[in-house]
Protein: Phosphoribosylformylglycinamidine synthase subunit PurQ
Organism: Microbacterium arthrosphaerae
Amino acid sequence: MTARIGVITFPGSLDDVDAQRAIRVAGAEPVALWHGSHDLEGVDALVLPGGFSYGDYLRAGAIAALAPIMAEVKDAAAKGMPILGICNGFQMLVEAHLLPGGLIRNAHQQFIRRDQRLRVENNDTAWTSDFASRQEIVIPLKNADGGYIASESELDRLEGEGLVAFRYVGVNPNGSLRDIAGLTNEHGNVVGLMPHPEHAVEPGFGPDTAAAMRSGVDGLSFFTSAVAAVVGAAA
């Protein structure tokens, strides 16, 4: 079967087409979905892309979390559908209470763009199974509201239950508590992170590596992991 992965476009989405291309490169069929719809069109997985949905008014992701299609997203998450939130999409997942905690303005109060090193803390999710445990990867990061916060007791729970999916390595770019770059839910089907894997899926367009400039493709494994999860569930 060919996995069909939906990408939801919100007003202000910037990386929806990039996410669709990443899905295609991973061997799946991208399906464009609209924030005002209540139809997921029978997709097998979902991506909430990066950008500045609704201009980041109120809080980043806060209005998008109330968009009509998010009712279907929540239902799909409860049924185990793989869902990935990237940057603004991560903010939506937090605002929709599909992932815990909150995301606030970067500690230095500036937008940041850099190729960011991460450590994969949990490779037992629908979006990380193609990584090795504690593998270090490099993918682009670009955000102004990427500081992850939660209470000390909640942070302890996330650590204790293995729900920290990714951690910043070398540099904490935004002041996230405990260097948290991304989370998973308890069932491993919902994952959110601030960096952008969709910008590191093709040689010539990704981060620099020791082998060559722009040759980094660490982001591709997010999407091949989801394809494997969908195909495996259907077998």
About this structure: The chain has five helices and eleven strands. Helices lie at 16-25, 69-78, 88-95, 152-160, 220-234.
